[in-house]
Amino acid sequence: MTRQRTAPAAKARLGGAAGLMTLFLLAGCSFFSHSVTWTKSGATEEQSQSDLAQCQERADVQTGHDRDINRDIDAADSSGSAGIDTSPLQNMQSYHDDRRYKSILEGCMAELGYRKVD
Question: Is residue 59 a part of any domain in this protein?
């Protein structure tokens, strides 16, 4: 007679494998990431630094607001994830947050007339 795994054990095993795979994917992405330089004709170094700081603050505020909303949603729906490994979802959310931050920052700098120099 063949023994079958129970649903919770199978889910836990799948969650762990997915978590490892996500971790490796994120590590690979950060390995190939590089810093971005911004340029704007006629902008001084001081103006560029000030504009970048302003855009970073805007991105920080917006992504912080997004995280607060997600935390509220998770708190309201915490009963559905009891006993399930949510670390893969948290890793994916962190990756999404990083991409959102970069998107806001890039949009802000473009609005101010800067372009990326890779």
Answer: yes
Alpha carbon distances (Å) from 82 to 7, 47, 75, 88 = 14, 50, 12, 15
Helix H segments across the chain? Answer: 7-32, 45-76, 87-111
Count the alpha carbons within 13 Å of 77 in the hemisphere toward its beta carbon: 9
Residue 116 lies in a domain: yes
- Residue among 104, 90, 16 at smallest CA distance from 56: 104
How much is the pLDDT for 94? 80
34-89: pLDDT as tens digits: 578 999 999 999 999 999 999 999 999 999 988 888 777 777 766 555 566 667 76
Distances (CA, A) of 68 to 46, 79, 92, 101: 33, 19, 16, 14
Task: Assess if residue 39 is contained within a domain.
Answer: no
